[in-house]
Design goal:
Structural class: alpha+beta
Strand order of the largest sheet: 1-2-3-4-5
Distance between the termini: 45 Å
Number of helices: 3
Oligomer: single chain
Strand content: 25-35%
Number of domains: 1
CATH architecture: 3-Layer(aba) Sandwich
Helix content: 25-40%
Radius of gyration: 15 Å
């Protein structure tokens, strides 16, 4: 059986985030975080089903942490190279876009 807690800790380390003890079941909600962002990891070998309920839960966890929500989807079998995707809200995307434009002075 897959130990998702170990996978979450490994993924948090892989992306440089701080893993939350007990996968967010304590006082710090979500699986991991960056400053200002609560991360929930989702794993699947070939697919992951995204729904409003999934998004609603990570939003609730992030807001309880006074942070923005993000989902990191990790797909691939245990012995395969992983495909990693992010789901973020429009507000966070706009902040990232503004930072990108400032960094590159619009030369994108």
């Amino acid at each position: 059986m897959v130990d998702y807690n170990k996978l979450e800790i490994a993924e948090a380390k892989h992306i440089g985030a701080t893993a939350h003890p007990n996968s967010g079941r304590g006082t710090k909600k979500g699986d991991a975080s960056y400053p200002g962002i609560t991360i929930d990891f989702k794993f699947g070998e070939k697919s992951f089903t995204f729904s409003k309920d999934v998004w609603r839960k990570i939003c609730a966890d992030a807001y309880s942490n006074h942070q923005s929500p993000a989902i990191n989807i990790v797909m691939g079998a245990q012995d395969e190279k992983k495909t990693r995707l992010w789901v973020i809200d429009n507000g966070l995307f706009q902040e990232m876009r503004e930072a990108w434009m400032e960094k590159y002075e619009g030369n994108v």
